[in-house]
Design brief:
By secondary structure, this protein is mostly helical. The protein has a single domain, classed as Transferase(Phosphotransferase), domain 1 (Orthogonal Bundle). It has four helices and two strands; from the N terminus they run αββααα. The chain has a two-stranded antiparallel sheet with strand order 1-2. Helix 1 runs antiparallel to helix 3. The radius of gyration is 14 Å and the shape is globular.
């Protein structure tokens, strides 16, 4: 099917930066950002849904295993302590890649995946 391209990516990312800024300003992290949790209205405004894994406690020192594998940052899968704000940004990057390119960058964020290695 293909991606929607860079213009759509910029439009999406502009709104997602506002969403992340608002959530982080309130001290909330989502921890399960993915395409399925982003709604679009008839004016192409994005809305984030499903805050089932969200938290506002100790967001910079989290350890619980939360999220969806194909959007999940490696530190979660490795059982390391993580900053929820950084996890939300990582997932947003995966979403942006999918919107622009039309494919997932990797099945999992791990060292043997081509696009993951480009991040290191």
């Amino acid at each position: 099917m293909g991606g929607m391209g860079e213009d759509a990516g910029r439009y999406f990312m502009s709104q997602m930066i506002d969403v992340l800024s608002y959530m982080q300003g309130k001290g909330v992290v989502h921890r399960d950002l993915k395409l399925e949790n982003i709604l679009v209205d008839d004016q192409m405004n994005l809305k984030v849904a499903d805050f089932g894994f969200a938290t506002y406690k100790k967001i910079n020192r989290l350890k619980s295993y939360r999220g969806t594998m194909t959007y999940m940052a490696p530190e979660i899968k490795e059982g390391k302590q993580y900053d929820g704000r950084e996890i939300d940004i990582f997932s947003t990057g995966v979403i942006l890649f999918i919107i622009v390119q039309g494919i997932f960058p990797f099945k999992e964020a791990k060292k043997d995946e081509y696009f993951y290695n480009l991040l290191c």
